[in-house]
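Q: How do we represent a protein-ligand complex in a form that can be generated token by token?
A: Start from the inputs.
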Amino acid sequence: MLHFLDDPAFAGQDAWQYWEDGVLLVEDGHIADAGAWAALCGAIAADTTVIDHRGKLIVPGFIDTHVHYPQTDIIASPSPGLLHWLDTYTFPEEQRFADPEYAATVAGFFTDELLRNGTTSALVWSTVHAASAEALFAESERRQMRLATGKVLMDRNCPPYLRDTAESGARDSADLMSRWHGKGRLSYAITPRFAPTSTEVQLASCGELARACPDALIQTHVAENLDEIRWVAELFPDARSYLDVYDRYGLLRPGAVYGHAIHLDDDDRRRLADSGAAVAHCPTSNLFLGSGLYDFARSDAQRVPLTLATDVGGGTSFSMLRTMSAAHKVARMGGFHLDALRMFYLATRAGAKALGWADRVGSFQAGNEADFIVLDPAATPLLARRSERAQTLEEQLFAFAMLGDDRAIAHVYLMGEPVGA
Ligand code: GUN
Ligand code: ZN
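Then emit the structure tokens for the protein with guanine bound:
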């Protein structure tokens, strides 16, 4: 059993706890205690149900900090790059989410697919239609998932059929927020798509929404693609940088998650770290769309809060294990070694911290909600052979990250209850 209290890159050995023969005590859907079986077995009441997962690895459920549910069905669409991909596949598909029934069908498949991949929480993109966010909130509530989403805000530079206005966008966001934010395990995320598709009036209204609700999440895209960055520079000639556009409207703060953030300078990274906002690194998407290679060394040097995300449908997999594999390779291309303990931290506790949920999910701290997954080191013939050879925890985790996918997720628990049982 493994979980993280801190970032192993900075906190060293104290950052994680690993029990070769561990036990997770769950009471009323929450974690009562976690530790070595030998130490805790005496405290287990006689009428407790004991589930034995010996030979497997229990970790907190994965947290995907940037994923577009309306892009589920356009995953793996061939394109020469971001802006073409948005115009050709993404926007036409997102139009369909004006229909609440269509949205509900995709939201159902999407949440099941997250869970099948061991992702128990996520910060998710809907479309510009309030009904799309509504549908995902409803499906998450049915499954009792801790999840955040928000309606996309875009009032320019997009097809007319996907356009809101600063006024209607703010009104719809405030309405959704009042009905869903803090309801059960759900949170609202203020969701301007990216600087090019919002007027200054709309960005200012995002800042106002954020001020009015200090614990709302914020999500957007930044510095993903060089053509996009040139476009932002033309649209916002007074801004120091792409990130600065958001900063000017009060959108950098704890609970704000910036997707991609590949092409930043040191001032941007310092500003991100100082503000408490986090980066969602989306390696399968960055490779697929040819957007660029995230600079782990510079990011760490300035202590940018980092999380891991699939970015489906720009990303090519729902699996956070496959996302780890891509992250490792992106890091390698920059001469940086991303170790497996760090990857598992990024996929669990780091996401929880970025979303303000560290006291709810992402680790086995007593009192947290009991969302956890069971990984099978023998899930495939090759993974079984490699796991047999693993000499250390790091080697075993690395094998999961390089060779694992949805097949390695043996069981998923939400609030202490098995999913799909
Ligand atoms: N930038 C603006 N919208 C999007 C999107 O849907 N996906 C990605 N990867 N980048 C974006
Ligand atoms: Zn995205």
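The chain has a mean pLDDT of 98. The first helix runs from residue 8 to 11.
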